[in-house]
Amino acid sequence: MRVIIEKLLLYIVLTGFYFADAEGASLIIALFAFILFFSLDLSEHRFTVLAATGIFTLSLLLGTGWIYYVPLLSFSVAGRYRKWAIATFIFHLAEPKISLIMLSGIVIYMVYLREGMSSLELENKKVRDQLTSDNLLLRRQHNELLKNHEKDIYMAGLNERNRIARDMHDALGHSLSSSILLIESLQYVRDEEKLKESLSLLQGRLKSGMDDIRMSIHHLYETSIDLKSRIEDYMEEMEPFDAELYYDVDMEIGHEVKIDILSIVKEALTNVKKHSKASEVNVFIKEQNDFLTLSIKDNGSRKPEQSKGMGLLSMREIVAKYSGIFNTFHDGGFTVHITLYKEGIR
Predict the structure, then answer these.
(1) Phi and psi (nearest 5°) for 292?
(2) 245: pLDDT confidence band, cut at 50, 70 and 90?
(3) Separation between Cα atoms, residue 44 and residue 257, nearest integer Å
(4) Neighbours of 220 (CB within 10 A)
(5) pLDDT of residue 225 exceeding 80
């Protein structure tokens, strides 16, 4: 379509110049030139331009008025044969006109530029398509790695649970069996001092067994949670929002604290979806010298009607559990800002 418009504009300019400059300008030549050159767009075959060039040559021999349409011939030849368009300058020898010669040169140059730009655009499109394909492939591979990572974590958790179960069985089984034997032997003890000593020993064994159980349960809950990856998953679920995570934490965070942080982030992002009328949301988690800061900020124009909704209240309760600081404010968007002191979350 672009080529047809350019050709039509060139035809109008040449026809206007023809009728203004030539004596006895013929409307038939103008109409025939229109039919000849615009019929080329009906076929993509390259030899149609050669046929049109032959017809143009015969027509030029019959009437010099055709000299005014040489730039249009140059335009058509340049579009199909590129460098061979220079050969069309030979037609100007029939009746040299500086303005027409210059116009032919400009037309050929413009066509070269257009075709060069088209080639670059086509190449850019190929590169863009290839990059898109590579990006999709990388995403699939990344997802596979994440799945494998989660699978490894799950299997490691199962192995750890099995180990803890064995440890509990060994430790508790030994404590209970020895305690049972001790209880059975108490019925034969007559000495009060020996009885107290045996009961004290029994108490120690039972306490030791209970300590083993507590330790095993403690290790059971220390399974690995990748806090950053979990929050990134939440951010991906925020489409069509423009969601970004800024994470800068090196300290070890306990299992329960991770769960609570995830709960806060999840609740805050849910509030953004439901109430904020925002287009973007950012989550900042940064470790400072003595504390950890967590901020969830959106660019919504709507200020929350109630500062003590159930979602915000539950966040406050979680933060209070660690003696942290909970703040909310509206300035170019709604922000939840939380400070958790390291002493409280270790």
Answers:
(1) -120, 130
(2) very high
(3) 70
(4) 16
(5) no
